[in-house]
Amino acid sequence: MAAGVLFLVLGFAGPLAAHAASTPALGDATTFGALGSTYTNSAATTINGDLGYTTGPGVAPTVNGTTYVNTGIYAQAGIDQNAALSVLNAEACNYNFGSSTNLSLLSQPLLPGVYCIAGAASIGTGGITLSGNGTYVFKIDGALTTVAGSIVSLINGASECNVFWAPTQATTLGANTTFMGTDIDASGITVGSTVTWKGQALVFGGTVTTNADIITVPISCVAPANPATFHVIKLVVGGSAAASDFTIHVKDVSNMEVGGGPFPGASGLGTSYSLPAGNYSVSENPNASYVQSFTGSGCDASGNAALSAGQDAICTVVNTAVAIPVVVPVASSGGGSVSTGGGRIVPLIGITKVPTSLALPTGTGQVTYNYTVWNVGGQQALDNVTVTDDKCSPATYVSGDTNGNGKLDPHENWKYTCSTTLSTTTTNTAIATGYSDDAYHQASIATAVATVVVGSNKEPPLINIVKVPSRLTPFPYGGGDVTYTYTVTNPGVVALHNVTVSDNKCGPVTYVSGDANNNSLLEPGESWTYTCSATITASTMNTATAEGTANGFTAIGYAFATVLVATPGLPNTGFPPQTSPWDFVWAACALVACWLIFAVVRKIEKHQAHK
Amino acid sequence: MNSAARKNIPRHWAAAILGVASIIIVLVIIFFAKNFYARQAILIDNAVVQNVSNASAIVALPVRLEIPEIGVDAAIEYVGLTAQGVMGVPVGPSDVAWLDQGPRPGANGSAVIAGHEGWKDGVAAVFDNLGKLKIGDKVYVLDGQGTKVTFVVRNMKTYDQNGDVPEVFASSDGKAHLNLITCEGTWNATQKSYSNRLVVFTDGE
Question: Strands, DSSP E only, in A479-565?
Fold first, then answer.
């Protein structure tokens, strides 16, 4: 145990010692896009952030923030700016350069750390690239200049929130420069024309000059007083892609990426963002092999999230492989009967997963996952049943096929198992699929998510949800009303609080019954029922999400169900080929023309004969 | 005599050429007259076009379909599904048919209107030129309350006559769509049907 803790401490201490750059607190200066005793502007400039000065510009900029003319927090922002500069100047150097340096000529990319340049620093036409999540400090004993059109690029988690420039002489940015980070420079900052700058120009006591520029203080740099925690989970069902094959974006209302993203998709409990309250949108790079949908209490069906201060919200981006025809077209004409889709019935499958154990307090150890798969729909047997787990393989069949027919019959419970060794707290997702054993071979899907904690005896909770629509046969064309019944259970050992159920295509989902002792805790053994009604006009697969918390962990479960609506056959809109009346007209015309030509030729012949 | 004949020749030629030319001109005028008058009527209608943004508000029943680009100005019949579960068709060549079990044109969802292609008893069918529409062309539906709903062509696609086509009859984006269907391909005398269907997908403006 002690060795484990020591290892953990060293593990974290190691990289910190190598690059000790740290981000200083900017206090009241945090929100300023430009701060100077004198502010000069010669053409339309936009400042997305606050602006502060004592002497104002000839041309007023557009300020999407507050303008402080020697009022309010202006003076304190100046004090905080200088305090931050002192912190930067006190930071130990990681990389030393003895004389004036063109940063573009250094080996790129530049890694996090404190760069100390004993002379002027410049950025040339090649620009610079900062790579990695960490703090970058450029202490420059001289001027900072950029040539026209140069670019500061950020990759691999580098954020403009953590880039600082501290020159002892003036800063001059060339025209059309793309610049990143906070520049604190009491000698003055001159921003060339049409510069795009994500960061801050802080020149309290000096002059800041702009000219048709855009300076944006990234919202994510403004440390929220009480941030919301936003988990964005990637759930991939079917196909060959992994969660990490998808690129997830979380953007604020100005369409700017937040939290240092984009990030590769993460399964389990996903990627955690700490964000100020506000509106955000979740999106991903499209993948033609998958159908995308959003689910969870933290976002709507389009991936829009409205986060409140301190909220803990989950948004899951579900991708279902196109190859799994979850929503199968139903043609009315196909089965020969009217609007029934030929007696097709939608199959439903369920899965629970229970790890043994849920907690490994002494560190690395073996965990066995036990899966139970059953036929939720119960209307027909399920064929080709498979169980896979993204962090344990293989999940092997143990028992349950009582009649040995290889099909998951109603009332059968099939057991699967998988063992693995875990060294860190792990959340994994199991997926069960099965197909109706009728002519339609329709897919059914279920998932089970479980967290096992390593290094603590606090057992994470588990939650399971099953959803059954009131209609399993296709609606006639036009659709109809459907009621979903959700059954939420606790397969774990600790009671869940803050249980919520949401559905990406039905709302509101209302609690019906199940909390036997009325203590608002979903206890092991309890089965809570929820319901929701919707009008369905086209075949629809929707995803319900159940969430709950206990022991500081969030448990999550998903349930999928399809409701089919028949599609009419195409109309027979064509007349048999017929002769057009115009055909007669044209024929008559041709005859007349022929006769005229004949007559003319005859006349000519006659005329020549006379000669 | 010879000199008289020489004078006569150009006169005969001129008469002949004039005759042929006037016949061609008359034919051309007849040929375009129908389209011309149709366009005139539509131009007048356009003067009072009201752009109704689709919205989910209750939309009145459709009455006429107008597609200026291809000279369509047709009455709308209402049809359901046949015993085989196939969308019905208008009775004659001149009208179009709206599937009245689906959304009304302008309401959220995919409204569907079908029209014939070909000749029937000497009359050209309403959707003969449907395939000449281009992306961005406008389609108008006049409802019973005199409101005109505008749609814009988004896409055109050919399907097999027996195709499973949920995308033609349903949509889930919460917007108004109007899809126009007619026949194309080759005539199968046994099945009494053309081999393909042309679908023009339009979106509410």
Answer: 480-489, 497-503, 510-513, 527-536, 540-550, 553-563
Distance between CA atoms of residues A259 and A269, nearest Å: 17
For residue A80, pLDDT over 50 is answered with yes
What is the ipTM for the molecules in this complex?
0.74
Q: b/e map of B143-179 (b: 16 or more CB within 10 Å)?
A: beeeebbbbebeebeebebbbbbbbbbbbbeeebbbb
Q: Give the pLDDT mean for B108-120.
A: 90
Is the residue at A439 inside a domain? yes
Amino acid code (one letter) for A397: Y
| Residues A528 and A422 both lie in one domain | yes
Q: Left (φ > 0), alpha (ψ -120 to 50) or beta: where does A502 sit?
A: beta
A93 in helix, strand or coil?
Answer: coil
A240 touches chain B (CB under 8 A): no
Residue A590 domain-assigned (yes or no): no
Mean pLDDT for all residues in chain A: 87
CATH number, domain containing residue A259: 2.60.40
**Which residue is it, tokens 């409204």?**
B111
3 state SS of A389:
strand
* Residues A550, A494: Cα–Cα separation, whole Å: 7
Task: Count CB-CB contacts under 10 A for residue A586.
Answer: 13
| pLDDT value of position B2 | 47
pLDDT score of A230: 92
| Segments forming the whole domain that contains residue A481 | 324-563
* CB neighbour list of residue A59: distance below 8 Å, 6 or more residues apart: A41, A42, A43, A44, A45
Instruction: Judge if A288 and A211 occupy the same domain.
Output: no
Cβ within 8 Å of B, A 471-490 = 477-478
Same domain flag for A539 and A441: yes
B125 contacts A610? CB cut-off 8 A:
no
Cβ neighbours for A82, distance < 8 A, ≥ 6 positions apart: A186, A204
The answer to the question of residue A503 being in a domain is yes
Q: Structure tokens of A240?
A: 């060959």
Amino acid residing at B43: L
Q: Is the pLDDT of residue A367 over 90?
A: yes
**Average pLDDT of span A222-237:** 79
Residues in chain B: 205
Q: Which two tokens stand for residue A417?
A: 């198992």
User: Which among A304, A320, A336 is the end of a domain?
Assistant: A320
Q: Which residues of B touch A580 (CB under 8 A)?
A: 119, 122, 124
Neighbour tally for A346: CB within 10 Å: 27
Cβ distance of A573 and B117 shorter than 8 Å: yes
List Cβ neighbours of A7 (8 Å cut-off, separation of 6 or more).
Answer: none
Q: Could you say which of A320, A351, A376 is where a domain stops?
A: A320
Question: In terms of domains, do A479 and A344 share one?
Answer: yes
